[in-house]
Amino acid sequence: MQTHISSGRRLVAASVALVLSLNAAACGGDDPAGDPSSATAGAGYPVSVNGAYGGVTVKSRPARVVALNPQVGEILVALGVQPVAVAASDKEIAETYPWLKGVFTGTLDPSLLENYEAKLEKIATYRPDLIVGSSYNVTDKAYTQATSVAPTFAGLKVANDDWDDTTRALATLVGADAKPVVDGVEQACTAARQKVPGLAGKTYQWVAVDDAQFRFGNGTWLECFGLKPAANQDNTQSTNAAVSQERIEELNADVLALWDFSGQTAKVKADPRYAKLPSVAAGTVIWTDIALATATNSPGPRSYPYMIERVLPTLEQSASSR
Predict the structure, then answer these.
(1) Is residue 12's pLDDT more than 60?
(2) CA atoms of 246 and 250, how far apart (whole Å)
């Protein structure tokens, strides 16, 4: 199985934004019939893909692309397209997307967005021939106006998309080949799995920690290491599943990853039951900071190697990986 992790909401310094989007990832398939593109990457223009609000058609190869979040910007660069502008600040890249430091040669312009949504007047100043973002950047109400500025890809659906499906769709629009980009991530995961063969088939949980509970997010990024979800791990977020801190013993997976956005780490570790968790005993607990949490929640071809580099040493040194 290839490991496909979907895209997530773009983050700024506010940590809560990440917590709200922990349900962003979804495991995608390899079946070509699932390719969202309606034309191959090598086809001549015009080309079209099915987007969140209908078909997106580009009449000629785009030369001036505006990226409304760093994740789609990352994908575009991997496809050989440097956006003329990316909706981010230098500080945001350094603190939240460190794997993208120095990657973008165009303008970093956070004023392209207001409350995560596109500011079309500002976008228009860059004279784009393609606008790329996600459905939270361009709402259905704003989409028609956005298309009056330039063809607009606002994601594949009004939700969070699989990053590899987004890559294929963007490859069609910009006339690139998605396969080397997607395959490169799988190769990185294959190499990571080979370093921790003892984890094959073992379980994981991925939770956000607030002052009362552990809230399940989509942890399919952990499948990169050969893991599978624990019985109570909810990767769909369909039930807004959570475990009360009073029932911490239910965090009983072989590998436990936590994103503490509310300063609960000391409290959790002080609970005597914490030391008895299987993951604590095995040394397979991963406490993420905002950069690592973003890498797992807004993944792309560069964030995967970053995530692997950050996580693999813990897993390699654990008793359960031997």
Answers:
(1) no
(2) 10
